[in-house]
Specification:
The complex is a heterodimer of chains A (83) and B (219). Chain A is an alpha+beta fold. Chain A is 34% helix and 35% strand. Chain A has helices spanning 19-30, 54-69, and strands at residues 2-12, 42-51, 75-82. In chain A, strands 2-1-3 form a three-stranded antiparallel beta sheet, with helices on one face. In chain B, the strands form two sheets. Chain B has a nine-stranded mixed beta sheet. The longest helix of chain B has 11 residues, at 14-24. Chain B starts with a strand and ends with a helix. Classes of the chains: A alpha+beta (83), B alpha/beta (219).
Chain lengths: 83, 219
Amino acid sequence: MKTFRVRVQVKFKEGILDPQAEAISQALQSLEFSGVIKVECEKAFMVHLNAENEKDAISQGRKMAQDLLANLVMENFEVEIVT
Amino acid sequence: MAWAVLQFPGSNCDADALKAVRATTSVTCDFHWHAEPILLGQYQVIILPGGFSFGDYLRTGAIAKLSPAVKSLPAAIEAGAHVLGICNGFQILLEARLLPGVLKVNHHLRFVSKNAECVIEDEAFPWFRLADKGNILKMPIAHGYGNFQAPKMDLKESSAVLKYRDNPNGSVDSIAGIYRRMGAGSVMGLMPHPERASFQDLQLNDGACFWQNAESNLR
């Protein structure tokens, strides 16, 4: 068993409107960031866990995302090992 | 057979729901703590009340769906229980995949708290009869995440039984509540609060029909 840090990143699926991201985008534009085109809000979870190997750690992370961390009706996720 | 109001850490419409049922019907109704699984045939009607659950951490209802009471709901419904999720309770039913779709943040990003008029669009045993179709119910809404969205296909197995007359939150097709049959029971979720509109002295008692209809239809 080794300890890994697994980063689970959750974001809205393409085409799902995110009014919060829209509001942040407008707020940035109202500051001096007139070049802002679009903002996407994402959530990230850094999970520290014990696993046999990297493959096992990734697979645990994916299962966590499917079962709890993401709502697959509206969200996608990506899982990676952080060293 | 008895009715139950589930209680989660953070539920705050639980007492209102219990009081509304007791005031408008003669059924036996008690609280049921979320950590206890629900037994087959234990309850005829199970109400998931509004408020919060587990701080609404992660996503509203995401943690509550893992509680023993919610995990035991599918079997109880198949065996004949009728489940009504109100506001936060609706959000829990969606996270538990007992109803299709999601509740997103209101499209205008503001919390809405007001009375909303809703139209009954279809029958929904035991809550609405076919004769109730077209009736208008005025009930309070109070939510930040009430913007109901569902892929079109999902809505085929469920029906949009309650719609806002004046869409307050951006919900697709102005949907305020959805319903589906499941085995011998049923599941209904809605954002308006019938339990806050069940008393004549509040001059707002359109919600009483939920409890009275269910009592008479399940007799």
